[in-house]
Each structure stands twice: as C-alpha cells, then as structure tokens.
Known about the structure:
There is one protein chain. By secondary structure, the chain is an alpha/beta fold. An 8-stranded parallel sheet has the order 3-2-1-4-5-6-10-13, sandwiched between helices. The protein has a 3-stranded mixed sheet with strand order 7-9-11. It is built from 11 helices and 13 strands. The longest helix has 16 residues, at 80-95.
Amino acid sequence: MHLILGATGHIGSALAKNLLQHGEPVTVIIRNEKKAIEWQQTGAKVAIADVLDTDKLKDIFKQGKKLFLLNPPAPPHTDTVMEERRTLYAILKALENSGIEKVVAESTYGAQPGDGIGDLGVLYEMEQALKTMNIPHSIIRGAYYMSNWDRSLATARKEQKIYTLYPIGFKLPMVAPKDIAKVAARLMMRPVEQRGLYYVEGPEFYSAADVADACAKALGTPVTAITTPKDQWQRTLESAGFSPKAAASMAAMTDLTLNDPFNTESPIKGTTTIEEYISDLSTPSAERPLLQARSQSLAQ
C-alpha cells in the first residue's frame, strides 16, 4: 500500500492519480474530511489525520509499506519556519517503528543548512533526519514550482501585469508539479532497496519575462513582468499577508537563489514547458489559489 502525505496539493494529488492509473493500491492522508468522497471515487482509500497527531499518524503508517512524504506548507501569515518544523518533526516521530519500508520525500533545489531561510533550511533538516533513520529512502529535489505562478494569472488578466522578486530576465530551473509526480510514482513503484537523490526540473530554464510571455499567449493580451527591488521585498511580502518572520524567510530564500549557480547532478528533465503549464492553467477548471502551493524561493 502506498501512503500519500500532501494528497490535496499539486504534487500529491497528481502522484496519487498516477499510481492509481498503474493499478497500485493508494491511501491518501488528508485533513479535510469533506474531500474524502471525491478521493474514494477515484479508487483510493482515505485516512483522515492532522499531521501533528503523531499517534494517529503512526497508526495510519502501520497500514502501508511505502510513504510519499511532503511536509505541508505553513500559511504565510504564521512563522512559517517554526510551523513547518513542527509538522516535519511530528511526521518523523510517527515514522519511528511504524513498519514503513520505504520513503520518497519531496525536498527542494538549494536545500542547505541554515536558520531563517524557509524551506531551504527545513527541508535540509528533513533530508538529514531521514539519513539517521533505518528506512530506505529517496529524496526528490524539485526545482521552482511552476504552480508558484498560479495567482499571477489573475493579475495578468486584471492588470496585464505579473509581479516577481526576481530580476525580469533572471532564468532559473522551473518544473511542473505533474512532472515531479511522475518521477515520484516511478520511485514509489521501484524496489524498496533502491534509494538516492534525484533532481527534477523542466525542459529548460525560465524567467519572469518568459512567464509574462506565456500569460500573454494564453490570454491573448500583452502582459508585462514587474520586479520588486530588493529593498522593498520585506514590505511587499508583508503587504501581501506574510508575517514579518515569513517575509524575512522568503526574502532570504530569494537572495540565496539569486546567488545559486544551479549546479545539479544529472537532473531529470520534465517535459512540460511554461507555455503549456500557463495554457492549462488559463482554463477555469485548472486554476488554483496560490496558497495551496508551497511558497518557494527556488524549490519545493
């Protein structure tokens, strides 16, 4: 049985559906009971749990053999680093003596030790903690999620503008969540003993200017990318609803990303281009609120 943490997000939902299409048994672990019927209709089993309820989570883990671990993103109005550490260590505690035979964990490009650097630090802690556990595991380091641009489509429609903290022409590795899910599915279905670190990115690097062009093509109207100067990052993020600590973490992640050489070890290349992603997103059924996606500087 495959257990999926984060099944209501972009990657987890695509992963669960991918495994089901391969005839694999899947249990999705969700917090919102209202979504249970929808998942049951796909053929998945459903377990309801708050990840902070370690005892209940361990009971669920005992029912499966392989776990997809995606630490849930904290709401930006909170101290995101503190909240994401709380959920991460609750999940890790539930894993102890749970009988899980393999973990596939979602991490991020740029994961590194450090405090106050958001996902880059928290997910590095996850990677290191898994190394100390006697459970075979694979780590996926995903590039910048294309889904982080989801909310930009609304401003592109309304204002013919999208907004970014990056310089307009700064190109970085991006990836569609469904391409990460395909890699995750392959790793979940491989033998328990197979482990490793896998980088996943899209077919090429993209900039905010490229995203603006993709929005313009999808909407049939000119769209301009607007960058926020570094000295305004904190204030801009707070005005968008980030707590001061969350804004500081996002600013720190962004700064680190701007200085990252993106040297990765034989990355797996997804096939979804930014044009294809934005085109799919532009249909009403495809749009998703920004806060359902993890806020990344480069990753996750």
